[in-house]
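Inputs:
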Amino acid sequence: MKKYFIVFIACMGFASLNAQCIHNVVFSTDMGVGMATSTPEYTPFTWRVMGHYKATKHLSVGVGTGLSFYEKALMPVFADAKLMIGKAHKLNPYIEYAVGYSFALDRNANGGFYMNPAVGMRYSLSKGKALTFSVGYEQQKLERLKEYQNSLYVAQFAEKLDHASISFKVGFIF
Amino acid sequence: MRKMILALIYLSFFSFFSCQNDLIEYEKGDVKVNIEQGDEWLHDFPLFWGINKKNPPQIAIWLEDTQGHYLSTVYATHKIATQSWLSAGGNRRKEALPCWCYARGVKYEDGLYLPTKSKPLTDGISGATPRGSFNVKLKPSNALQKFVVKVEINHSTDFNEYYPKSAKEGDANYSGGKEGSGQPALVYAATIDLSSGQKTFEATLIGHSSPDGTSGEIYKDLSGLTTALHIVKHITVSIQ
């Protein structure tokens, strides 16, 4: 009951955001890859979509989701804050911090903590639209089932993975 | 488009309320090999400028018959299985888990009994080094009734006064140099008889491995070992 209540409150929050503040909300999407810095290493591919509320001229906060492909496909759900640095120009640097949790789409896996601080550049196009390029550090925990079979036994264990990578992302704000 | 994105975000937040799966489910007759971490499970591994990283130990679990013949590897940690050592200075670390390597008996191109990067261990039996207590499930076939579970465990750079960094190659306490083991690997064993009706078998420490990794011999004298004795607290094999 408590869970449904929280979901209801969250939906009401989103709905009211949609109704009242939509003019202050910007959407963005990005995709990227990573250069693994941990072992076992894995080169991830990620696609994210985010909605940000412009809290001040420079700071926007929001939520996002998407897909991450590690050993298993994951769906991250995260909070994201973006701080634009300096006055608005054609090209603006920014810093961004995303933190949340990723859910595994495979029943033989569990997701885990997700974090992606990054620095980037925003290149303004026409009104309200822009391209972004960012470099950051991505951490993604997950757990997966591993199995081995021979004539004597079937062995199973849960492998806990803690992936770290340098992330490179290209995005579009609209 | 914006409504679609909002709907996607709504839906993804609903997934917050989904549960984590129990990846391993035990059934009657399954064998659980449980390694319970000790106080020294995480060990300071020097990186650079005095910065240390907390490293978990290397582990191999394998089965032998009651005559001491190797049957099969159940689990080995990723680094030794794929030779993905960090900051090992090119050392293949034959001193890491030599008892398992020699029991397995697979000799590679360079004359060592260690898997190589190009010929790693089968993916299904290797996993990221666990940072805490850990278990493996075995569903034995009818052919496997009486057997020995062996576990070998080792930290790198786990030097003490008996196994110092300064030991020279050829010395009895040489353990691979400055990127080597320090204290040698420990070997635990439990003899399992599935027909006995016994439900729990405690693995006992049967000795340490060759400090320099040049043989698969087990040495019963544990007098030079200090912190290595506390890497694991208990190793238990239980029948569900």
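Chain B touches chain A through 48 residues (CB under 8 Å). Flag for discussion at group meeting.
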